[in-house]
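REVIEWER CHECKLIST
Item 1: Sequence provided? yes
Item 2: Single chain? yes
Item 3: Sequence as submitted:
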Amino acid sequence: MRQLIRGHIVAAPSPGALDITENGYIALENGVIRCVSTERPDGFADAPIQDFGDRLILQSFADMHLHAPQYAMLGLGMDVPLLEWLQRYTYPVEARFADAGYAREVFERLAQALIANGTTRVCIFSSLHTDATLLLMEALERAGVTGYAGKVNMDRNGGDGLQETTAESRRETLRWLDACDRFSRVRPMLTPRFVPSCTDALLAFLGRLSRERKLPVQSHLSENREEMALVRRLHPDCEQYWQVYDKYGLFHSQTVMAHCVHSDARERAALRANGVLVAHAPDSNVNICSGFAPVRKLMDAGINLALGTDGAASNNNLDMFEEMHLADIMPCGYRHDPTEVSSAEVLDMATVNGARLQGRSDTGVLAVGKKADIIALDLDKPHLYPNFDTPALLTCAAHSSDVVLTMVDGKILYENGEYKTLDREKVFYEARAAVKRLYA
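Item 4: Structure as written out by the authors:
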């Protein structure tokens, strides 16, 4: 099947580069991009065309750090720092996901909201519950989302109803992995919540699994100073946080570490040397006062950097545009460093870098031979379009509500406010109301 999409095409083919094709055409054949041009391409004279006029056409987003259970409590309880926030707010909510019915309801709505927000690829945390994690993966598959999902491991420092024994965590991780063969778009990712949540025995087990089964890993690193001090007390043999993961074989080229707000030069060098991807979540870092991640320094160190919406600590309803905006402006606040992060770099972080980690050479950028994972935006600000080189166009002018189309592999999954089933605003408020009832 051949088809054409027309609009203002914006692509980030490589870090720091931004390609603009005004009033351009994307020619698709069986969901694969055959041509991007300013003229209607040869061989597509009779192909149906979807003309978006003055709207923007972008690569869809990759959210590389997201806690799925926290979707139900977005924006709640950001009055305390990280460790207290987890105990007071997050762990009680995540314990609810032992209930498969509750998990199914929240995860179905989350998956649909991702597509409606223009996000088609994820690295996502579930809860520690095996059945809930499988329900999450099923929901993502049905929605058309690609990526990695992980059953959380935590055998210490949990909350009431949210902690495993080491034996349970091992057993349930293996049960979960054995059940993952049926998924084609969403693959398993080992997920020690963070060092304080896992005993040495559990970290060693997960490191062996990662090595033996060639499984990727996701966790947190240097998000909060109190967290870092706790890690030093738990592992006095390790001078720095990253060394704990490295000691147990969890710090390698298929690892995603979220935040890295307080990574110093030595830790940045270790991230680069081991090929670890850093998932930057600026909204979350601000909302629970973790600090300003040194984005420019991370990038200049040669670290692969992507974006993530995180979870309840971000109150933006999965809005990757907000993360782009904050990623663009927050480096100015880091020790009053005026160094800019360009719109092209931010767009690359939000789109292409996630696809690189996921090993999909067939997608991730608007280029010939790639599958069409794209979004269309209606900013309703046509006077801005001539200024394509201004960072404000991509990082300030847009919002998730501007998404009018999401396409995966050339198939339309969301268009003009409808994702086939549920309204995304209704989804958000119903899920949030369910959590509020917990505290009533």
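Item 5: Key structural point noted by reviewer: Residues 381-393, 420-432 have pLDDT under 50 and may be disordered.
Item 6: Recommendation: ____
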